[in-house]
């Protein structure tokens, strides 16, 4: 079985198809580029597949994919578009569900790597070969048909100019102390802090933002939004830029400013960016997402208040073609729990 998630799986795992483009032929500068993917060989099973592995306790799918690729290939990656699920049964009868993303190798100097823990490389008896090969050759080399189907999905994204993407994350701030509890209901709204559960969620978001290669941050200057992104900003050194027009109060007085600001962001984004926002301002963002995404993508977004739960995020994958219409090629809704 493939594509649709098995909700009662006993084994959960995550992985990625790592891709790159190399010039085709010697005079590559003047030729079309050739897509290559990375495959691994497992001596125990005598198979060729894509790198993947099982989740650890309290680990998210995205953190698992990044860690497993590092362990099995010694490469650091950032995630791109989601390729969906592989669902199948193991030899012992257990159901297994594996989520795959497209991914690219990240520069060794990227600040996102500062937010990642060190990992121990997989031993040779688990992975004894890794190999970059042209995608068309990989179709015949892969051992399992489920991997072939996953690679064909990736090739469809390439054909549609939707494989090479940038990521824009719209994140609702983590859970804050209730208004009537903050200094007995008299505390200034812009200073209301995160609750303990919100602080824990902010820490969990570090691995999520790093997995998507976030190297640009924007936030409302109010405390609960800043605190949601601060753990990541401090670890990576990425500048946390505050925008007054993103506050609840500013949105009430001038909703057009926020809508215009976000529309320009979608149209001209040059880095992988996360923005931290307030629930009442979400309609202003959804309006612009709807205008830049295909209908089949926009329907994934909740259509009623609260739209996003605290700490939940919308991951927008944007084609690098700077066309305003349908620049958003995929939308993921991420809860930051152990599954997406």
From TrEMBL:
SUPFAM superfamilies: Nudix, Phosphoglycerate mutase-like
Alphabetized InterPro entries for the sequence: His_Pase_superF_clade-1, His_PPase_superfam, NUDIX_hydrolase-like_dom_sf, NUDIX_hydrolase_CS, NUDIX_hydrolase_dom, Nudix_hydrolase_domain
PROSITE patterns: NUDIX, NUDIX_BOX
Keywords: Hydrolase
Enzyme Commission no: 3.6.1.55
Protein name: 8-oxo-dGTP diphosphatase
Species name: Arcanobacterium hippocoleae
Molecular function GO labels: 8-oxo-7,8-dihydrodeoxyguanosine triphosphate pyrophosphatase activity
Keyword Phosphoprotein on entry: no
UniProt cross-references to Pfam families, sorted A to Z: His_Phos_1, NUDIX
Enzyme class: hydrolase
PANTHER family named among the record's database cross-references: BIS(5'-NUCLEOSYL)-TETRAPHOSPHATASE [ASYMMETRICAL] (PTHR21340:SF0), DIADENOSINE 5,5-P1,P4-TETRAPHOSPHATE PYROPHOSPHOHYDROLASE MUTT (PTHR21340)
Keyword presence, Ribosomal protein: no
Domain spans labelled Nudix hydrolase: 9-156
